[in-house]
Amino acid sequence: MLSADPSASDEFVIEHDGIIIGKLGAWCLPEIGFFLRRESRGQGLAYEALTAFIEYIRSQGVAQLTADVDPLNIACLKLLTRAGFLETGRAQGTYVVGERVCDSVYFRLNLQSP
């Protein structure tokens, strides 16, 4: 379940059984981001939250969503693909996490009918 004040932000917390287990949103449209607590992964909760967010943002008239994913994050790559995102490109050495240089896989989801 997503919860937020839509008039204030397009950022949502993800709740399950009354516990906050993650966050999902568009901090700078059209790019989205999300995370889920480790113990909540593998249960379909991220997919449920992402598809609810896609429908919400589509209802706001947004034309597309994008995502930038570390190619080592296989679960995230699978999640975005399952939700209909298409890979649009790749780049090397795009950001640093801690001391590790990360690459990027770019995704896009068109929300408007052609």
Question: Can you tag this structure with a few keywords?
Answer:
single chain; 114 residues; alpha+beta; Aminopeptidase; four-stranded antiparallel beta sheet; three-stranded antiparallel beta sheet; 2 helices; 7 strands; globular
What does this structure look like?
It is a single chain. This protein has 2 helices and 7 strands, in the order E-E-E-E-H-E-H-E-E. The strands form 2 sheets. It has a 4-stranded antiparallel β-sheet. Strands 5-7-6 form a 3-stranded antiparallel β-sheet, covered by helices on one side. The model is unreliable at 1-8 (pLDDT under 50). 21% of the residues lie in helices and 46% in strands. The longest helix has 15 residues, at 45-59. The relative contact order is 0.16. It has one domain (2-110): 3-Layer(aba) Sandwich (Aminopeptidase), CATH 3.40.630. It is an alpha+beta fold. The chain has helices at 45-59, 74-82, and strands at 2-3, 11-16, 19-28, 31-36, 64-69, 86-97, 100-110.
Q: What's the CATH topology name?
A: Aminopeptidase
Mean pLDDT rating: 90
Rg calculated over all Cα atoms: 14 Å
Low-confidence stretches: 1-8
Q: Strand-and-helix sequence, N→C?
A: EEEEHEHEE
- Return the CATH architecture: 3-Layer(aba) Sandwich
Overall geometry comes to globular
Q: State which percent range the strand residues make up.
A: over 45%
Structural class based on helices, strands and sheet pairing: alpha+beta
Instruction: Record the strand order, biggest sheet.
Output: 1-2-3-4
CATH class: Alpha Beta
By CATH's scheme, which homologous superfamily applies? Gcn5-related N-acetyltransferase (GNAT)
Largest sheet: 4 strands, antiparallel
Number of strands: 7
User: For the terminal residues, how far apart are their CA atoms?
Assistant: 30 Å
Given the structure, what is the number of helices? 2
How many domains comprise the coordinates?
Answer: 1
- Percentage of residues in helical conformation: 10-25%
